[in-house]
Amino acid sequence: MVSLIVRDFGFRFRNYNPLIGILIFVEPIFIILTVAAMRIYLFGKVPPFGSSVVLFMGAGVFPFYIFRRCARGVRALKSRTAEYYFVKPFDFLLARFLIQQFQNIALMFLFFLTMWLYGIPEAAPWAPEKCALSLLAVSCLALGTALINSAIRSYFPGWAKIYAFLSRPLMMFSGAFKTVDLTPEPMRTIYAWNPLSHVIELFRWGIYPNYPVASLDGIYLAKWSVGTLVVGIILYNNREDA
User: Fold this and answer.
1) pLDDT tens digits, residue range 48-100?
2) Is the CB of residue 50 less than 8 Å from the CB of residue 208?
3) What are the two backbone dihedrals, phi and then psi, of residue 122, each rounded to the nearest 5 degrees?
4) Is 161 helix (H, G, I), strand (E, B) or coil?
5) Which of these, 147, 157, 173, 241, has the minimum number of CB atoms within 10 Å of its CB?
């Protein structure tokens, strides 16, 4: 698996211009800074919660990007599968998933470390176990969705572009830029339907000790995480190219 990850990492990036590769890697940072700048321009420097607009936006964007980047799935080409012995198509999907997880976690660590060194003490989570639990839940959601997307792509290869287009607006309805409990109805209910909203609330709760989490439902999030993973396994095992 380690060899497959190294090979797949090189396979994905050696055709990129180094500058493009860097831009893809730091894309969440650009989103955070852009949204934070717009928020400061429109509403001033007072953040929706906490002491830093940039930190608040980062605590919402990073969990979402872990899902978005890891949930795309992949369809292993037979020509590539033939290059390896004892390698299954699932191994390619898992390698892609682990690569994306490593990139996202590394970038997230650098972001929060930079914020802490800059003088924002809230960047060091007061309850890191809550942040870890949030990342575990979103990882299960992402892996299950990746399995589902890979199963669909085995029947309809064009699904990758459709899913990439449809998944972008999810950020607007996941509470990444808002405090869900302080959002008026009906948007608060709409946010609560989205399991990613609960992921972000749980992550922010690990950063802000007094973060309002009345709308956070751990059971609902657990059902989505486990259910998506189970459905993904079933569909992936019955895909067309199995």
Assistant:
1) 888 889 999 999 999 998 898 888 766 554 445 445 556 677 777 887 888 88
2) yes
3) -65, -15
4) helix
5) 157
Tokens 């892609």, residue located: 96
Q: Quick count: other Cβ atoms within 10 Å of Cβ 108?
A: 20
36 exposed, middle or buried (CB, 10 Å; 0-12, 13-18, 19+)? buried
DSSP 184: P
Q: Tokens representing 77?
A: 């080409």
Tell me which residue of 135, 118, 140 sits closest to 51, measured CA to CA. Answer: 118
Pick the closest to residue 137 from 29, 189, 64, 56 (CA basis). Answer: 64
Cβ neighbours of 200 (radius 10 Å): 29
pTM, whole model, 2 decimals?
A: 0.87
Q: How many Å apart are CA 239 and CA 89, to the nearest integer?
A: 11
Handedness of CA 164, 8, 99, 78 (dihedral sign): positive
Give the residue from 141, 138, 158, 160 showing the smallest Cα distance to 149.
Answer: 160
